[in-house]
Amino acid sequence: MAASEDSLRRALVEKQSTIESQGNAVRALKASNAEKKAVDEAIEKLNALKFEKSSIEKQLQASVSGNPDSSIYRGVAGLYDYGPPGCAVKSNVLAFWRQHFVLEENMLEVDCPCVTPEVVLKASGHVDKFTDLMVKDEKTGTCYRADHLLKDFCNEKIQKDLSISAEKAAELKHILAVLDDLSAEELGAKIKEYGITAPDTKNPLSDPYPFNLMFQTSIGPSGLSPGYMRPETAQGIFVNFKDLYYYNGNKLPFAAAQIGQAFRNEISPTPREQQISGQSAKKTCLGEAVSKGIVNNETLGYFIGRVYLFLTRLGIDKDRLRFRQHLANEMAHYAADCWDAEIESSYGWIECVGIADRSAYDLRAHMDKSGVPLVAHEKFSEPKEVEKLVITPVKKELGLSFKGNQKKVVEALEAMNEKEALDMKSSFGN
């Protein structure tokens, strides 16, 4: 079995090398402004080397590994069912996950409901901030993710428009590299600048606007208790912090884990081709990344390493695995630092694991909303006196200076740690 897998891996590597060489030949012909016939012949040769994704997808469906959900009713895009082989693979992966993380790390495992009361997700910020930017076809009302339309336009121009200038190509590549960092206004401006229309009808598009990614529901027959299908499994862990801390003998550190489904009403997920610079990922040691401040802290770095070990032991090719840090503007509202484990497939680079440093954001948010202290205590043999910097925003003066943005400024100040506050004070002094 091992020899068979090894020979298959070598064959795949050789195939990929041949495809990359032919791809480089196509790019060289385009760069040298070669005749269209020569370029077309090179592209045809490249396409002949590539495998057909549709053939593999048909084979998976034929084996009943995974099929579109409710296919007898033509199904809904994005929903799939696992068949017997798919369930067997999933069970093995989950068993390995539990062994690798829960058992080896002595984590405390919980299992919480899939429906979450609105008050929990209101406190966590998901009700107000868990959004993507969407545009609508102004005539049909069909919805699209604004960043995906801009990305598709840029890729189409770069790859297929032979008349495009080097300057224009560089501009479009820069947009692709910083796409996640564009605000709603900037996205809308680019869509109008390039004349991007609805892909299906060519109708004009609305301005981008936020769309909440959660499925809303009601709990009980009265409909008076709103809730949501949980968008993540993490909130169940945070609201159980007090009980888990008690279970652990009122001691830190401890880790908690949960396996289960989460529900997100995605507009249309898409693969990511490039890093922020548009270049390939850089190799570095985790320890060095932590010491240089690239990775926020040792705990985050440790779990990036554990995720790497899990994925490679699972069989993921290490040469097709990378970790991408989120840009400031794409960072989730709860995250101080966040990294995605991305795997290269025939669909491009796909985000498969999210690893976020949430600091104490969630515990503070639920403590403030519920009034229940979600804290840990350390008892000293002798009393200690410590000085602590307390940030107390003067709301009246901030209101005069920032008007309608006063609330955001106050929230930002209250969320600052001591180092950030001192750095800001120092910058004012200079």
From TrEMBL:
- Cite the entry's keywords alphabetically: Aminoacyl-tRNA synthetase, ATP-binding, Coiled coil, Ligase, Nucleotide-binding, Protein biosynthesis
**What are the protein's GO molecular function terms?**
ATP binding; glycine-tRNA ligase activity
InterPro entries per record: aa-tRNA-synth_II/BPL/LPL, Gly-tRNA_synthase/POLG2, uS15_NS1_RNA-bd_sf, WHEP-TRS_dom
The record lists the membrane-crossing segments as none
Concerning Pfam families, the annotation shows: WHEP-TRS
Q: Name one GO cellular component term.
A: mitochondrion
Presence of keyword Lyase = no
Q: Where is the WHEP-TRS domain?
A: 11-67
**Is ATP-binding one of the keywords?**
yes
Gene3D superfamilies, per the entry: 3.30.40.230, 3.30.720.200, Bira Bifunctional Protein, Domain 2 (3.30.930.10), S15/NS1, RNA-binding (1.10.287.10)
**GO terms of biological process kind:** mitochondrial glycyl-tRNA aminoacylation
Coiled-coil residue windows = 29-59
- Record note on quaternary structure: Homodimer.
Please give the name of this protein.
Answer: GLYCYL-TRNA SYNTHETASE/DNA polymerase SUBUNIT GAMMA-2
Q: What taxonomic classification does the UniProt entry list for its organism?
A: Eukaryota, Viridiplantae, Streptophyta, Embryophyta, Tracheophyta
